[in-house]
Amino acid sequence: MQELADRHGLSISHTGLPALKGYVIQSHRALEFKTLITQEMLKRGYLPGTSCYTCLAHTPEIIEAYLSELKVVFGLISECEQGRPVEELLEGPVCHGGFKRLN
Known about the structure:
Elements: H1 2-7, E1 12-17, E2 20-25, H2 30-43, E3 51-53, H3 60-81
Antiparallel strand pairs: 1-2, 2-3
Helix pairs in contact: 2-3
C-alpha cells in the first residue's frame, strides 16, 4: 500500500497488525476517498475498505491482482488531490466516519 501511495504522491497512515492492515489517506477528503476506493474496487470484483485481511489462501498472484486494481484507484485519488472534483466520481453518498448512532 505504501509503495502505491508513494508512486501517486499520496500520504497514508497505517493501522493494525501485519495480517490485518488498515490505512487512511491523509487528506481533508479522507472519507470521500474511502468511499471512492469502496465504489471503484466493488466494480472490479473486490469487497474492499481501507483494510486488508490477508490469509494463507492469498497467493502472490491474488495479492498482485488486488494491488494492480488499487493502483488505478489511487491514480484517481491522486488526480483529485491535484484538483479534480471527487464529487464527479462518486455515484452515491459519502460513507460515515467512525461508529455512531445513525438515528
